[in-house]
Design brief:
5% of the residues lie in helices and 41% in strands. The chain is mostly beta strands and 253 residues long. The protein folds into two domains: 129 residues, Sandwich (Immunoglobulin-like), CATH 2.60.40.10; 112 residues, Immunoglobulin-like (Sandwich), CATH 2.60.40. A hairpin with a 2-residue loop joins strand 7 and strand 8. The chain starts with a strand and ends with a strand.
């Protein structure tokens, strides 16, 4: 259980936040290899190991509620946060990145290289990577988005459908700048919802393949025409987490 921070801690924390946000942590070609007492530092990179600017770093106390420090990665992907004397105890670090593309704004959780706690006495190095797919630490879902399918006027085994994704014409890259390629994803029954999971956020054309034929798709929230190929732009449909995105289609024969 976390407890609220006493009011006398707020000036200290606010002051530390300002300092942390403006600290330059150095060059990505000279990464810190040793921890420093009283400091948590690290570098944020993308899938190509290039530095990521303006990632939001949150260093949070494990006990005291609303006791946290904020920082942002600089142009070299670096950040540094000084840990205050009070409150004493352990801290954790996490990072997020916000990007706007395809007419949508997306917030990404970044993958930590270490999820352990640390104290002021020990200091810490916590590096983060921007990933568009892959399982999250602890098996708590995936970094990618998902496509949800709902049967409408069809009599098919939904778990035998495969979705074929191809880059939308003119969209050669994913949201992080990596090259977009065609791929297939199986449809799974996830607690009663049929979905294709862990899809890197980009702009695609999708087809539903089933026993040698192509099924028809209809965007559930646009109620558009039934078509063999549909454009995919991920957003938020239904009750999704802060960094979870999807698109929903009716599927018919």
């Amino acid at each position: 259980m976390k407890y609220k921070t006493f009011h006398w801690l707020l000036p200290l924390i606010c002051s530390t936040v300002v300092t942390a946000c403006t600290k330059d942590a150095g060059s990505p070609n000279d990464p810190a290899s040793q921890t420093k007492n009283g400091v948590v530092t690290g570098i944020v990179t993308d899938a190509n190991n290039l530095p990521v600017k303006d990632a939001n770093i949150t260093v949070e106390h494990t006990v005291w509620y609303n006791s946290y420090l904020l920082a942002a990665s600089n142009s070299q992907g670096r950040y540094e946060v000084s840990i205050p004397n009070d409150p004493a105890g352990d801290w954790t670090a996490k990072a997020q990145l916000t990007k706007t593309s395809y007419g949508q704004t997306y917030t990404f959780d970044l993958e930590p290289d270490n999820t352990g706690t640390f104290s002021k006495a020990s200091g810490a190095i916590r590096n983060f990577k921007w990933k568009l797919s892959g399982q999250r630490p602890g098996g708590t879902g995936y970094y990618g988005a998902h496509v949800d399918l709902y049967m409408f006027g069809a009599d098919v085994d939904m778990t035998k459908i495969k979705l074929l994704f191809t880059p939308y014409p003119g969209e050669t890259n994913l949201i992080d700048g990596t090259v977009a390629t065609a791929f297939e994803k199986p449809v799974e029954d996830v607690a009663g919802t049929f979905m294709a999971k862990d899809i890197p956020i980009g702009k695609y054309t999708v087809k539903a393949l089933y026993n040698g034929k192509t099924l028809l798709l209809n965007n559930r929230h646009l109620d558009d025409n039934n078509q063999e190929a549909k454009m995919v732009i991920f957003g938020k449909n239904g009750y999704l987490g802060e960094t979870e995105y999807n698109i929903e289609f009716y599927v018919t024969e």
